[in-house]
Structure to design on (493 residues):
């Protein structure tokens, strides 16, 4: 891109309808996120974390998992704090409120610092609104929303590193190069690298690629302080990610976990990579494209608005789109390969959160450049924005109306189950209790106990609630017609 010598003197027009639509759309996303989050409860592995915290304490639980099974040390530390703040009977509303606030602060700082560094002037109103658009984009582009966002223990592994990566990126692009900023790089990228292994590896590759590219194109001279400072920050981020990742990779827990995986079979892994790639392509082209297109339209509006305020560059339109799509393809393939090798088969969808993150970044860039260049050529139409914002408003509204009744029903049934079991442990003297299965969870992670009382999930559930009897699911039992009839939830044996 090249500098523009003249400023665009077109006065910025006020568009109150657009502002209202932006606020309404983002408010709907917040409602969607918090409403489903308020219906979320503990599931599956959450119970073993809660049980261990109560039985052995904070630090012993952390060291146990690190040495025996789950080496993701930063996520484990955060998870342990959540187990102190919440219990199986709680709604997780405040957890998701905190998660959203942290995400908003991280993305807002990141966008603000990127625009400031490149002298792209915009308003605080637009920055705040596009912060929410970026977050909602990651959310909608997620493969497996239930297991990635609405499973407590998984969210600390897959969402927490993403948030701190955005915090770290905001520091890298900050024009302030004081000691505090350099020091802040340490915790942000240590936390980012200590959770999801495929995510950490991909970010490490991206950081190293940036360092190599800059060193090839720019000579680091004393007079060239901005480039030097940028290199220092990128290098610091790379080192912190590497250290944090190595703490995971070379732990006893990681070695123990490998013992439960099948032996490395090149043919099987190759098949898993091919299958995962086909599923990813299908998901993007069939399911995610209905979100990607309006997302691009929305970001085109921000590009157009920045052009009207003060254009700084002329972008090579075709080159940028080509570079973004090629990089998305390469890093998506790398993520699938890494995930398939680590799991030695088809990886769960939650491991692909880094692809969702990169899709949100890539198509935000594409949309921004489209709007910027169209406005520069005086051919931008606000109809493009209206299509995007109305599509997202309809999308969020439909999802709320579909998902909320499902999530609410699941939460109420879960709460009744906890209430009945808590009461039963005071008077019931039998050895076993059978439970009706939880109803459909929708975008919540289901994670119910099983038919086998000896199953680890069943035992962890039992111990987390402090029950003296075993529990199991009896699929012949049906959900009671009225939620105020808790005795119908159990049959005693």
């Amino acid at each position: 891109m090249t500098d523009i010598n003249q400023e665009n003197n077109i006065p910025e027009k006020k568009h109150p309808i657009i502002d209202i639509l932006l606020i309404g759309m983002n408010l709907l996303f917040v409602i969607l996120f918090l409403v489903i989050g308020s219906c979320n409860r503990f599931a599956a592995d959450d119970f073993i974390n809660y049980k261990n915290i109560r039985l052995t304490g904070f630090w012993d639980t952390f060291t146990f998992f690190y040495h025996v099974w789950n080496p993701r040390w930063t996520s484990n530390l955060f998870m342990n704090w959540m187990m102190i703040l919440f219990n199986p009977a709680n709604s997780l509303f405040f957890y998701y409120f905190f998660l959203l606030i942290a995400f908003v602060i991280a993305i807002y700082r990141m966008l603000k610092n990127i625009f400031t560094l490149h002298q792209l002037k915009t308003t605080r109103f637009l920055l705040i609104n596009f912060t929410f658009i970026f977050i909602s984009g990651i959310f909608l582009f997620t493969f497996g929303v239930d297991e990635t966002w609405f499973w407590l223990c998984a969210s600390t592994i897959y969402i927490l590193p993403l948030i701190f990566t955005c915090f770290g990126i905001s520091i890298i692009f900050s024009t302030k190069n004081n000691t505090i900023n350099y020091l802040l790089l340490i915790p942000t990228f240590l936390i980012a690298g200590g959770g999801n292994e495929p995510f950490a590896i991909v970010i490490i590759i991206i950081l190293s690629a940036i360092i190599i590219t800059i060193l090839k194109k720019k000579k680091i001279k004393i007079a060239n302080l901005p480039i030097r400072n940028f290199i220092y920050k990128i290098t610091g981020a790379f080192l912190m990610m590497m250290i944090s990742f190595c703490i995971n990779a070379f732990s006893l827990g990681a070695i123990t976990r490998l013992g439960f995986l099948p032996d490395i079979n090149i043919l099987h892994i190759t098949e898993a990579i091919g299958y995962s790639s086909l599923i990813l392509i299908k998901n993007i082209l069939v399911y995610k494209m209905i979100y990607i297109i309006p997302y691009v339209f929305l970001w085109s509006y921000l590009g157009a608005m920045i052009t009207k305020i003060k254009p700084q560059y002329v972008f090579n339109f075709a080159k940028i789109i080509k570079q973004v799509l090629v990089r998305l393809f390469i890093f998506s393939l790398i993520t699938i390969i890494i995930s398939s090798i680590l799991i030695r088969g088809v990886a769960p969808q939650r491991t692909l959160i880094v692809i969702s993150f990169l899709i949100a970044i890539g198509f935000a860039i594409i949309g921004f450049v489209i709007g910027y260049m169209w406005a520069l050529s005086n051919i931008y139409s606000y109809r493009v924005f209206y299509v995007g914002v109305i599509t997202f408003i309809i999308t969020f509204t439909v999802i709320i109306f579909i998902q909320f009744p499902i999530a609410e029903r699941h939460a109420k049934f879960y709460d009744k189950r906890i209430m009945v079991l808590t009461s039963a442990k005071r008077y019931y003297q039998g050895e076993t209790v059978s439970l009706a299965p939880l109803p459909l969870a929708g975008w919540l992670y289901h994670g119910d106990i099983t038919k086998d009382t000896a199953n680890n999930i069943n035992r962890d559930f039992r111990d987390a609630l402090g029950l003296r009897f075993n529990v199991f699911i009896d699929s012949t039992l049906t959900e009671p017609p009225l939620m105020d009839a808790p005795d119908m939830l159990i049959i005693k044996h």
In short: Confidence is low (pLDDT under 50) at residues 1-12, 480-493. The CA atoms of residues 283 and 430 lie 48 Å apart. Residues 382-427 form the longest helix (46 residues).
